[in-house]
Amino acid sequence: MENDSNQPEVILDSEFQMLLPPLEESVFMQIEQSMIEHGIRDPLVLWNGILIDGYNRYKISQTHNLPFNTVSMEFPSRDEVTIWIIKNQNERRNLTPMQHRFYRGLHYHTEKRIISNAQGRNQHNVVGAQNEHQPPEDEVHEKTATRLARHYNISSATIRRDAQLATAILAIGEISPDIKMDILTGRLHVSNVQLHELASGTEDDIKTLIKQIEDGTFVSRQPRSTLDTDPDSDSHEMQPWEQKFTKMTDDFRHVLRTHAKKDDTKSVKSALRDYISMLEDLYKNI
What is the pTM (predicted TM-score) of this model? Predict the structure, then answer.
C-alpha cells in the first residue's frame, strides 16, 4: 500500500460505484458540511488510478474544490477489487438486511469466477494437463459456498440463496439502476421469494416487475410457508416491532405509488392518517 501526497487524475468506474450504497441526502449534506469546514481527512482509495472507495468524498472535493489525499492498493484483477469492496462494505453496520444478502451473493459469484479463470489458465499453461486433475464444477461451487458460509457464520444453503438473490438484483439493475438501489436500501420491498424466482426467470419477467413498480401496481408477495423462509436470513434478527413497522411502511408506500400519480390527494391524506395512527399504536405497544 502506498500513500500519495499529490493528487493524480482519478478514474471513475461505474461498475465499482454501483457496488457502493448511496447515502441518504441528509447524511450526505452533513458529511459535505463537515468536509467544507474541516477538509477531507480520509484518503481516496485507488487501484491502477481507478477510484474504488471514496466516491462521495471525491464528489464533494470536485464541487467545492477541496484538496484530498489518495492511497493506492494493488490487486491482481477487477474481481479481487470487487471482493475487497464487498468485504469493506460488509464491515459497516448501517447496511440493510437486503444489502448484506446482496453482498454475500455477489461475493459467491465473484469467487467462483476467480476460481474458474484460474482453472482455465492452468489448463492452458500446463502441457498435457488432464481434465480429471480439475475438480468438477459442482464441487468447486460447493467448496465456495462452504468457505463463505464459515466466513459469514451462516449456512452454505443461505450463501447459495443469496447468490440467487444477487443474480436477480443485478439483472434488475441492468434495466433500472434506480429500482435496484431502491430494493437494496429498503425504499422498495421485493420479497426474497420473488427475487429467487426472478433469478431463474427471463428478461421479460424482469421487465414486467419493473413496469409494475413504475406503474404502482406491484405488490410484494410474502412467503406462504416455512419452506420459503431462510433461517439464516437477516430478517429473522428483526424485532417484532421492526417487522410490523416494515410491513405498514411498505403498505403505505404502495398506496402512495398507486394514488400519487393520479393526484388523488384525498386518498393520499387518508392513507397518511391511517399510517400515523398505526405508528401511534406501535409506539404505545413497544
Answer: 0.69
